[in-house]
Amino acid sequence: MAEWGLSPSQQQKLLGVSKSTWLAWKGGQVRAPLKAACAERVSYILRIYAALGTHIPIPERAVAWVSLYNTAPLFGGKPALARMLGGQVGDLMVVADYLDALRGRSFS
Hints:
Elements: H1 8-15, H2 19-26, H3 36-55, H4 59-64, H5 80-84, H6 89-101
């Protein structure tokens, strides 16, 4: 998420955690096992990151993709990050599914 240039509050929102939990994690303190919803969010974030690395072979472009305006109907002309920050686990899921559906196609 740091590679994508996300602010701490954006990272918290993607993970669905409080500021205190996020700060503890950043400090290397994991107090308890992940809640199921957070683990699901992490899995979608990792899927998105991995799919971008697969689809876009130039690392800088792969990292930038989430912040670029996107003409795909799913995004309505906004960056994928806007959808990802919608606040629901499903927002991350649809972006991950979109990228998985593009497997075998090239895009930028």
